[in-house]
Amino acid sequence: MACARLAYETGLRVAGTSAWVHSASTEALALFTVHPTRDHDAMTTAGVLPAFTGVAVHDGYTPYRRYGTAHQFCSAHHLRELAGILDTDPPGPGRRT
Fold first, then answer.
1. β-strand partners of 5
2. DSSP state letters, 4-36
3. How far is C-alpha 26 from the geometric centre of its chain's CA atoms?
4. Confidence (pTM)
5. What is d(CA 16, CA 23) in angstroms, rounded to the nearest whole number?
6. Which helix (H) or strand (E) holds 84?
7. Which residues fall within 8 angstroms of residue 54, CB to CB, at 6 or more apart?
8. What are the Cα distances from residue 77, in Å, to 38, 39, 92, 94?
9. What mean pLDDT comes out for the span 16-37?
10. Confidence of residue 20 (pLDDT cuts 50, 70, 90)
């Protein structure tokens, strides 16, 4: 059975400078690293994703496609995008409320 790994990144400020927290996690383990960039190099530097061969669960950010053997988009992102569509699409003909 292939292991699924969730990968994610988010911005923060460190000593007044922009940086990124990168995470890689399974049901049992989590690794968090801080890097000055959000790119492929930052993910490689953390050292977990380059050796990963399972299902990579992520937000669709392109550099994640370099890792894992299969990909699944995080459902939380799908739900947020759908909620955003409903919030910006006014009620009218053809839309059920």
1. 56
2. EEEEEEEEEEETTEEEEEEEEE-SS-EEEEEES
3. 13
4. 0.70
5. 22
6. helix 75-88
7. 2, 3, 4, 5, 68, 69, 70
8. 18, 19, 26, 25
9. 91
10. very high
